[in-house]
């Protein structure tokens, strides 16, 4: 079985490093991008299994990336979990209708990421 891959997209180096540590702990090979444009380029180079995507970033924000990725790669791959401080229901609905499979609030921890990755099919359920 090939190693699963995840792209962590956030303009904060601290958040990228924290997410990378958590996701590598689940056995993923992790790449990082600091904005949506860099993430789109990374997906074109090698489509990851999953993307942990920040909403508010310079150059290209998460929603713009999400719409572009869905238009280019289809509705199901990669699995995209939007990660943000945006808590309004309208924003969550916008993210899900743009093509995110799940939604994580910052700050997050390993348990939250594990739950979301399991829900979107990136990780197996643990009995």
TrEMBL record:
Listed SMART domains: REC
PROSITE patterns named in the record: RESPONSE_REGULATORY
The record's section on Pfam families has: Response_reg
Sites where 4-aspartylphosphate occurs are at 54
Q: Where is the Response regulatory domain positioned along the sequence? A: 5-121
At the top level, the lineage of the source is Bacteria
| Gene Ontology biological-process entries | phosphorelay signal transduction system
InterPro entries in alphabetical order? CheY-like_superfamily, Sig_transdc_resp-reg_receiver, ST_Response_Regulator
Listed SUPFAM superfamilies: CheY-like
- Keywords for the protein's UniProt record, in alphabetical order: Phosphoprotein
Please identify the protein, giving its name as recorded. Response regulator
Q: Which organism is it from?
A: Neoroseomonas lacus
- Give the taxonomic lineage as stored in the record: Bacteria, Pseudomonadati, Pseudomonadota, Alphaproteobacteria, Acetobacterales
Q: Which gene is this protein's source?
A: cheY
